[in-house]
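Quick review question:
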């Protein structure tokens, strides 16, 4: 029973968080498509056989698939759920539409819309993810305010990177890598992705601003095999706590700022992974996100003294996770890889400049390569998850 309960603790939060983020992403595509007059055949959360399906008066089938790892919007006449065009199929579709409904009906089909409308519909998914993150962060700031540790230095590790760089106990860090620092957590977020990278800091010491330079070193955050490495310079905070409350407008501004910080950190970390300056072992797949969801929900529940506050704190932690995950999914979908939204936008940009679509054979090859890249990335991330969860060590122990 304990194993089953632990499984539910991890699975249920994961499904809730992922379903929310995916639903909003697909809703962005859906609403933009409807605004552009595109006919939609299906809105699905999850893949595979339908667990639930209903068709509304406008003809849209609303579906929940049994595999809760994504979703899609299928436009009228789509040859597949990825909206991948096929030259011969489009010609046949066009001839069929013209014969059945006349030229005016072509305007309701996605693939025959002006390129700017297709680009708008495509970009609306990631945009919806960023908007969701802003809304969730703003809601948390307005409901709970912010309680953070001051960025004042309470400990400098003897013989560490920070001591060698000239940091002193009592220094107030005001800037790191060009980013303004408002809390010790802000400092941690900057440093943890900059292992091996020379980083400039500005500290306030006795009313004077002093510039320091340090190169964070990679350290594992836990002793277990497979634990990810993060950048560290050997600093600790004081016990000075900064408490802030926010009105609606201030909360939205903080939500925008937090979303931007998560996005820029993600972009920087991915760039370092691509160039080999940062290990890709930090990438999480579905298993890693599920584990994180369970741990975050548990942490919130264990910090509360009664059932009501357990639910409140666990829910707040999952909302914060959903906001971060939403930024990640929005960003990843904008990567210029065919089959992702960014790949579609890349093709539309070519079409807008060249005033003709990219050759069908080139698009088809691009989609095959893009699909292979996405699948390889998912497999690699899942491998990281299995290593981190010590699954291989577990099965190895069964036969040793």
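Suggested answer, residue by residue:
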């Amino acid at each position: 029973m304990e194993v089953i309960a632990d499984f539910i603790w991890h699975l249920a939060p994961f499904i809730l968080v992922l379903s929310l983020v995916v639903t909003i992403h697909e809703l962005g595509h859906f609403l933009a498509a409807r605004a552009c007059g595109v006919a939609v055949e299906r809105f699905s959360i999850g893949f595979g056989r339908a667990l639930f399906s209903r068709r509304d008066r406008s003809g849209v089938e609303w579906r929940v698939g049994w595999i809760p790892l994504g979703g899609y919007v299928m436009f009228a006449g789509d040859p597949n759920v990825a909206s991948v065009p096929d030259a011969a199929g489009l010609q046949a579709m066009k001839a069929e539409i013209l014969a059945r409904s006349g030229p005016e009906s072509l305007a309701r089909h996605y693939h025959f819309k002006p390129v700017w409308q297709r680009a708008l519909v495509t970009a609306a998914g990631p945009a919806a993810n960023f908007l969701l993150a802003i809304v969730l962060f703003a809601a948390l700031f307005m409901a709970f305010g912010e309680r953070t540790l001051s960025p004042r230095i309470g400990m400098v590790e003897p013989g560490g990177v920070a001591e060698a760089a000239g940091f002193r106990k009592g220094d107030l860090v005001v800037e790191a890598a060009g980013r303004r620092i408002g809390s010790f957590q802000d400092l941690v977020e900057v440093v943890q992705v900059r292992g091996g990278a020379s980083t400039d800091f500005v500290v306030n010491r006795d009313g004077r601003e002093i510039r320091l330079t340090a190169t964070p070193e990679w350290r594992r955050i836990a002793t277990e095999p497979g634990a990810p490495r993060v950048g560290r310079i050997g600093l600790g905070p004081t016990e000075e706590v900064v408490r802030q409350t926010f009105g609606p407008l201030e909360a939205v501004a903080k939500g925008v700022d937090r979303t931007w910080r998560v996005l820029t950190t993600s972009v920087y970390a991915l760039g370092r992974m691509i160039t080999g300056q940062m290990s890709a072992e930090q990438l999480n797949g579905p298993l890693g996100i599920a584990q994180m969801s369970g741990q975050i929900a548990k942490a919130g529940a264990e910090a509360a003294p009664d059932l009501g506050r357990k639910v409140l704190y666990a829910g707040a932690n999952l909302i914060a996770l959903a906001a971060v995950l939403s930024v990640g999914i929005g960003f990843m979908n904008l990567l210029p890889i065919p089959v992702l939204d960014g790949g579609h936008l890349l093709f539309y940009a070519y079409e807008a400049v060249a005033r003709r679509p990219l050759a069908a054979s080139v698009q088809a090859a691009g989609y095959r390569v893009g699909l292979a890249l996405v699948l390889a990335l998912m497999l690699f991330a899942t491998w990281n998850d299995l290593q981190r969860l010590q699954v291989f060590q577990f099965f190895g122990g069964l036969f040793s």
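Why it works: The radius of gyration is 24 Å. The mean pLDDT is 82.
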